[in-house]
Amino acid sequence: xxxxxxxxAARALRTAVFVEEQGVPAELEHDAADLAADHAVVWDEAxxxxxxxxxxxxxxxxxxxxxxxxxxxVPDGPVANRFGESVGVxxxxxxxxxxxxxxxxxAVTIALERRAAERGLTGIRLHAQxxxxxxxxxxxxxxxxxxxxxxxxxHVWMRRSILPGLRPVRxxxxxxxxxxxxxxxxxxxxxxxxxxxxxxxxxxxxxxYTGDLDPARYRGRMWxxxxxxxxxxxxxxxxxxxxxxxxxxxxxGRVELKSLYVAASARRRxxxxxxVFLVEREARRRDAQVVELWSDTRFSDAxxxxxxxxxxxxxxxxxxxxxSNTTEIHFTxxxxxx
Length: 338
Known about the structure:
By secondary structure, the protein is an alpha+beta fold. The chain has helices at 8-21, 26-29, 104-118, 133-137, 174-185, 195-198, 205-208, 271-285, 300-308; strands at 2-3, 38-43, 49-56, 87-95, 123-129, 142-143, 148-150, 153-161, 166-168, 220-232, 237-251, 254-262, 290-296, 312-319, 327-334. Residues 75-84 and 232-236 have low confidence and may be disordered. InterPro entries: Acyl_CoA_acyltransferase (IPR016181), Bact_Acetyltransf (IPR050832), GNAT_dom (IPR000182).
């Protein structure tokens, strides 16, 4: 994975495929967005590019074309000021003619999907040539919006979610949030969930994170991930919660990662890691340089996740003097050092 301008071999491959083979004008093929893109390249033994593609992030390219505004539910995750604030765009997928049929277009696309998750993006869009749309359908993409013709070639917009079921928490999620967190705590001897006495925010979790508008609340955001394969009979709607995570501002330049919980049935899918990346993206959006968190000493699996993602123990602990006799470890991560 290479940030910034594409290597000369990748640029030459794109020129050969798009400009010379397909007749795309060179001024359309080579644009300024390359400078802010992540580039995936497959090399041969001689150092020549066999395949390449790029990922564009709207955080780096504010006027990035994300395609037509979706009609109906958007499967890309959280949406705020702009309909695709957490959506990246994969494009410029090119494969050398003698290397086609070997799955290399699929390989560079999947590599960029992983990079998108690392950036905290929750969805992917791509403006696919209609002739190869089947490749992306096979990778789980769906078409949206009308087809169009660009540079004399038929195209269609496509999308897929990196975090299916992700959405901002609602106040009516309170019972489901309590069940999720209560089930996780029950895995650890001595952990007791007392909602009214110690965690009243769970009664109205969305309201608890409205500090951007109400200074008496947490200044931040909270998300949940629905497990859409399970029926939540108590709530009367599909989708029990598979996971949750939140972020709140704690001081200028600092945010706290909070309430990262993944249901036992949803683990080993990379969900916890993806939610940490989502928090880090939100931290950067809020101009934070440091993400901190406090984690129960009993949550050793979570500690291993945090350490693998670059969080380090800050040498501090605190006792909460609660019903669970909790002692927490302080972790921090410097976003500027990445």
